[in-house]
């Protein structure tokens, strides 16, 4: 099987009935790019920049960040690279920021919420990204967006930094796409409104499932509620993809669900455009998608969305193959 997958490294990912999808990888550092290319990744769908900030005693400087972003963009040789702005808080702590302990860290002061408040940190990162933007195909993505107001504010700050850089004579790419993670139910529900203003969505199912099911993703005792195949999750995912397509935008997924062999046929049927997963899963996913028909999966969607339980969905997909 490994040998069969290895032959697919330079293939594109096209279903049996001709639907092309992009298989991208989630990375944490520039060193991870090697594995992405070796495994046939067509892009980076999620660069988790938190790692630049972790395991040290102070914030990374603009130049340090610039070097990392430039390295990833260059090593990806023009393939798309979605960089997520700082998503700290929740399970990811930064000791040197000295933030107060919270009762519910996953519902607290994290990610974009922190960046909009601590704007020095946010602006430094955005400047580093904008400066690096001419070295490849950069897309910028904001994490944990819950309201349109947050997106508009974050975008306005990005535009301000872009204007400042240009006034300083720095060349910034004019083709940077700007998107959001859809990982909070309010945003999935409002996806039709967001789709008018963003360039793309990336569905973060790790958090979307935890928030939709109200089940802490770190808590073993409630892990039975962590149900990617629950029709409630599938309906939200469908809303997001449909909303994007209605406005001519693309929708990806960068949560664990994107690389799951039961979820993949469903997501193909729902029309997902980009699947971002750990690099080691890409060839297996490609091999699977080559054998699937999008039309056949699409015809089963209505039925899947109207099932009662996650177990029923899983059984149905297993029986199909
Ligand atoms: C997610 O929430 O699905 C996601 C990809 O982000 P993270 O796992 O970093 O929270
Ligand atoms: Mg998340």
From TrEMBL:
Q: What is its main location?
A: cytoplasm
- Domain PEP-utilising enzyme C-terminal, residue spans: 2-292
Q: Where is the signal peptide?
A: none
Where in or outside the cell it occurs: the entry states: Cytoplasm
- Supply one GO molecular-function term: phosphoenolpyruvate-protein phosphotransferase activity
Q: What is its EC number?
A: 2.7.3.9
Query: In the UniProt record, does the keyword NAD occur?
Result: no
Keyword list (alphabetical) reads: Cytoplasm, Kinase, Magnesium, Metal-binding, Phosphotransferase system, Sugar transport, Transferase, Transport
The residue ranges crossing the membrane are none
Cofactor(s) required, per the database record: Mg(2+)
Lineage: superkingdom:
Bacteria
Q: What reaction does this enzyme carry out catalytically?
A: L-histidyl-[protein] + phosphoenolpyruvate = N(pros)-phospho-L-histidyl-[protein] + pyruvate
User: Is the keyword Magnesium assigned to this protein?
Assistant: yes
Q: Into which family does the record put it?
A: Belongs to the PEP-utilizing enzyme family.
Q: What does this protein do?
A: General (non sugar-specific) component of the phosphoenolpyruvate-dependent sugar phosphotransferase system (sugar PTS). This major carbohydrate active-transport system catalyzes the phosphorylation of incoming sugar substrates concomitantly with their translocation across the cell membrane. Enzyme I transfers the phosphoryl group from phosphoenolpyruvate (PEP) to the phosphoryl carrier protein (HPr).
Q: What is this protein called?
A: Phosphoenolpyruvate-protein phosphotransferase
Source species = Metabacillus rhizolycopersici
Q: Name the encoding gene, please.
A: ptsP
